[in-house]
Structure formats: C-alpha cells, structure tokens
Write a structure and sequence with these properties.
heterodimer, A: 214 residues, B: 330 residues, alpha+beta, Sulfite Oxidase, Chain A, domain 2, eight-stranded mixed sheet, globular
Chain lengths: 214, 330
C-alpha cells in the first residue's frame, strides 16, 4: 500500500528530453539518414544513377537539418520548454555534417576530386555557386560551436555571428530552387519555402513585437 | 648439309593426315584468335550475330531484329540494363523527374496509332503503325545514347533507318529539313499542364542528317516493342546528337524548307542549339560536356568517362558538318 501512496516519481514531472539518454538517442537518430544512404549505396538501391542520388539526398538532408535546427527556438518558446535548447547545437552540427557529405559527394562522385574541374564548374553554375557560398558560410558557425569559442567571442558577438544561419538557409533554399528551375519543378521547393518562411517569419514577428527572438 | 630425299613431301601414314573438316575448323579458330586483343569483343559479337538478337527481358511483345550491317550500327560496348534504360529517362509529358516516365506512362494507348507524313513530299500519307512496322526489315542497332545532362547508356534498339521511310514518301526539291511532332494528349499525359516546354514536343533534323543510315526509326528495344516510357510505339534515335533530339511517340513527320522551331531551342536558345551534336569541346552554358557518367557502369565510385566527338560516330557523320563552325552551330 505504501508504494501506491508514495508521491509521484520525480521522473514523471521531468520532461523526456532531460533524460540522460536523450542526447545520445538524438545523435543516433540524426545518423539514420547516413546509415540508410550507405546501406542503399551498397545494396544498389539508389536507382540507375547512384552517384547523382547520393549527391541529391545529402543536399536534401542538409536543408532538412537546417530547418530542424531553426525550429528549435520557436518550439522552445511556444511550448515553454527551455531545456529544448540543449539539442540545438547538435542539430546545427548535423546540418554541417550533411553539407560536408554533400560537398564531398559532389567533389568526389561528380568531379573525381579534380580540383581544376571543380573550380571551373562552381562559378559556371549559379546554383552551384550559391550552394558553395552557403557551405563556406557554415564553416565559421561549425568552428565556433563549442563552449570555449562562445566564451572567447563573448555571447553577444557569438550570437551576431550565428545569425548568419538565416542567410545560409535562404541561400540553401535558393540553391535548391535554382537546381529545380531547370525543369520548372517547384513542388518540393515550395514545401521548404513555406517551412522556412514560417520559421523566419516567427522571428520577424517576435522582433516587431519587441520580444527577443533568440 | 643433309637433305631428306622427300624434301618435305613425306606425309607418313594415312592415319596422320588431318581430315578436311577438322583443319577447316582449326583455321576458323585461328582466324578468331588472330584478332588478338579484339578477340574477346569479337567473341561476343559472334555470339550476338548467331542469335541476331539480344536476350529479351520477356516483359512485352517480341520484336526481333536482324543484326545490322551498317557502319556504326552495332557498338561492342556492354549494354545498359533493361531496368536502367526503362526506369531512368526523360519524357517530360510524364513528369520531369527521371523516374516519372516509368511511373506515369503505363496507361498510354499506343493502338490505334497513326503517323502523318506531310509537307514537301510527293507522296504525303497517313501511315498506320502496323503498316510502318512492316515497311522495312527490322534491325537490331546497338547505339550509345548521350544525354545533354551528362549521362549515357548503350541501348539495343530495334527499327530501321528513317531513310527507308523517307525514300518511299519521295521528298521534293524544297525539302531541306524534317520536323518530328510527338504526341501531346492532355488526357493521357499528366504533365502537359506544366509550362516547362511548349507542347507538343517538336524536334527536327537537316535532310542529310535524317537520310544518314544511322538515324533510326525505332519501334523496340531489347528485342521487344518499346515500353511506353521509352517512346512507344515509334520514336527516333539519332545516336550522335544529345538524347533530346530524338523525339518519342511520333505522330507527325513534316518535310519543310525552313529550319523547324524545336522545343528546347524555343525554351532556351542559348543552351540548346538546333544541331545539338554531342561535342566534348562545346560546353553547355551551365556545365561541362567533356565527360559523362555511363549508367550502370562500376557503381557509385565509377569514374566518369570522356565524351567522344559526335558521341563516337565521327567516322560516320563527321562529313555532314565539314567546314561548319561547331562552336556557333552548337
């Protein structure tokens, strides 16, 4: 009987995402797209042009992780769950992880690591140039993602620097739009555009209302 | 010096004389071996010739073709798989993704089907597809196909030279170009509503290009009738030009005195010229054409292969463009 009458376990009031396993679990989940791509590549399940499929799918996942990362703050504020912020860095770094894979896949599978061909190809294609610019802009963000970098820069400067992500996601969207524009195929682009518009729009509205939009 | 009395005319006993049939066979074998490095390729060619037909996937009605004897008509390269050919291609009327045609073209009705021959000809006529199928001997042609997007395949088409049809309809002196119009049926083609191209899809060739024996009127591939996504029931295959020059599901062939306005040229004249000959030295404005990815070759990490002038058909078609500035006439 005593057991029944005992006060509720503290675990029940503690949100799931504060569980010590939450971060490792999320980490594993974020690796699933890569695991699937590797499996599909070796199982010959990527269609007639597996190289092209790998390049495109790593690009898709970059854009998705950027959106997920940008969704953390609105979600945190709207649900009043400040603890959600602890996942933001990992999600952002996964966006960077997938963009590195995307660029590697392009450089290797499409260009055969031919530096001369790459430096000729990127400026030739506006969409590639925009994508490359977004990738380059992500480098300082990934490089300053650890605690000591935040301290060294100072929170204010660090935050200013990391506002670059808004420009990056727009460049990523433009990159995707331009790629699809060759075939006037905008269905998928429109979905990302709406998601990104909502994520950035929410921040604009907060700012207009004078609330911090961090 | 010692000489043998018989000076080499000693045949020994009768049992040691090789029977005629045996030594003739040995000579055939030696001829085959004599080709050296080419021996292997020749071996497969001999095997193909014996069958006169690539092994069928047994998906559609058979359409056998005899081994083509025209120069360049049968490349020895490894065939792209039937699955890759029929699941990865462009046919915008059925969707712009390369997997779309296979998904969406299934319901296309290819009977009844007619092809109208019009314009500057002495014998204009509307051909029924079954009449076209019997117009000339079906040949198996194994062609390289190079897409302007930078990938390529090796496809065993079945059909006959377009020139066979052209000769029968007797073009007159004004016929300088041939214009191909492909099917545009809103009821059957879900993407005709999209504004990516002006429909119907129109392509064209210069008269001498159309008359070149390599220009194929194709009715089948892999020994069977064309699957819908590949341009059933009849299409053109021009192996030395980028793939989009080869119209699918043809409904009209018109002979004209003026260069036809072709769909991709109308959409982006700077990017897609009328000629669109495969040329590694003339880049697309947005990408290099120097290399290509051969579909199905060597998996994910396979290196791209260099693209060949006129897609490797320079000996057969180079003279058509003698003296022409190919940078300007891209």
């Amino acid at each position: 009987m005593a057991a029944v009458l005992s006060p509720p376990k503290p675990a029940r009031s503690k949100p799931l995402w504060l569980h010590p396993a939450a971060k490792p679990l999320l980490f594993a989940v974020c690796l699933l797209p890569l695991a699937w791509l590797l499996y599909a590549a070796f199982a010959d399940a990527l269609g007639a042009n597996p190289a092209e499929a790998l390049i495109r799918k790593t690009g898709d996942w970059t854009l998705r992780f950027l959106c997920i990362t940008l969704a953390v703050t609105p979600l945190r504020v709207m649900t009043n769950q400040p603890a959600l912020a602890r996942f933001r860095r990992m999600l952002g770094l996964f966006a960077f992880f997938y963009v590195v894979l995307h660029f590697l896949a392009y450089s290797w599978l499409d260009m055969g690591f031919d530096l001369e061909a790459i430096t000729k190809d990127i400026p030739k294609r506006p969409f590639a140039l925009v994508g490359f610019l977004a990738f380059v802009l992500m480098v300082p963000l990934a490089a300053t993602s650890f605690n000591r970098a935040i301290k060294a820069l100072g929170a204010k400067r660090w935050q200013t620097l990391h506002k670059l992500v808004y420009g990056i996601v727009l460049l990523g969207l433009l990159h995707f739009f331009w790629m699809k524009a060759a075939k006037n195929n905008f269905g998928e682009v429109a979905i990302y555009a709406v998601v990104i518009a909502v994520l950035l729009g929410w921040r604009v509205v907060r700012r207009v209302r004078g609330k911090p939009a961090r | 010096m010692h000489y043998r009395q018989d000076r080499g005319f000693d045949h020994g006993v009768a049992s040691e004389i090789t029977p005629r049939g045996i030594y003739e066979r040995r000579r055939d074998l030696l001829k085959l071996l004599a080709v050296g490095g080419g021996g292997m390729a020749l071996g497969t060619w001999v095997a193909r010739d014996a069958m006169a037909q690539t092994a069928r996937p047994n998906k559609l009605a058979a359409l056998p073709g005899i081994h083509s004897a025209i120069a360049g008509g049968v490349t020895m390269e490894k065939l792209t798989s039937y699955t890759d050919i029929t699941s990865y291609n462009n046919y915008y009327e059925f969707g712009t993704d390369k997997a779309d045609p296979a998904h969406n073209a299934g319901p296309l009705k290819t009977r009844p089907w007619t092809v109208a021959i019009e314009g500057e000809v002495k014998k204009p006529k509307v051909y029924d597809i079954d009449e076209l199928l019997k117009l000339s001997n079906m040949e198996e042609r194994i062609y390289r196909l190079r897409c302007v997007e930078g990938w390529s395949m090796v496809i065993p088409w079945v059909g006959y030279s377009l020139s066979e049809l052209i000769k029968r309809v007797e073009p007159n002196g004004n016929a300088k170009y041939v214009e191909f119009t492909t099917l545009a049926d809103n009821k059957q083609m879900p993407y005709l509503g999209s504004n990516v191209l002006a429909w119907p899809y129109v392509e064209g060739l210069r008269m001498d290009e159309a008359m070149n024996p390599l220009t194929l009127l194709a009715f089948g591939l892999y020994g069977e009738v064309l699957p819908n996504q590949s341009g059933a029931p009849v299409r053109v295959a021009v192996p030395w030009k980028y793939g989009f020059k080869s119209g699918k599901s043809i409904v009209k062939i018109r002979f004209t005195d003026k260069q036809p306005s072709t769909s991709w040229n109308l959409a982006a004249a700077r990017e897609y010229g009328f000629y669109s000959n495969v040329n590694p030295k003339v880049d697309h404005p947005r990408w290099s054409q120097a290399t290509e990815r051969r579909i199905g070759e060597g998996g994910v990490f396979a290196k791209k292969r260099p693209t060949l002038m006129f897609n490797g058909y320079e000996p057969q078609v180079g003279q058509l463009y003698a003296g022409m500035d190919l940078q300007k006439n891209f």
